[in-house]
């Protein structure tokens, strides 16, 4: 039996310092990959709650933690 993959298994969280150090294009890529990963997981039946980092990105807030 194998445990299902969770969002936490594939998420990459950045600190504010890390976020501030990356270029705008990298920030856009980060947002895109995080949202795509969540969409892929939900299409495979991921039952978990939507992570707070995704809500923040959807509201236009910075995703660093």
From TrEMBL:
| A Pfam family | KRAB
Family matches, as InterPro entries: KRAB, KRAB_dom_sf, Krueppel_C2H2_ZnF
Q: Write out the transmembrane intervals.
A: none
Q: Which domain of life is it from?
A: Eukaryota
**Could you tell me which PROSITE patterns the record lists for this protein?**
KRAB
GO process annotations (BP): regulation of DNA-templated transcription
Residue span(s) of domain KRAB: 5-65
Protein name listed in UniProt: Zinc finger protein 316
Tell me the organism. Answer: Eurypyga helias
Classification from the root reads: Eukaryota, Metazoa, Chordata, Craniata, Vertebrata
């Amino acid at each position: 039996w194998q445990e299902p993959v969770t969002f936490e298994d594939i998420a990459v969280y950045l600190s504010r310092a890390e976020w501030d150090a990356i270029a705008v294009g990298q920030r856009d890529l980060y947002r895109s990959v995080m949202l795509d990963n969540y969409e892929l997981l939900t299409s495979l039946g991921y039952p978990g709650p939507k992570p707070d980092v995704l809500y923040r990105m959807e509201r236009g807030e910075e995703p660093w933690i």
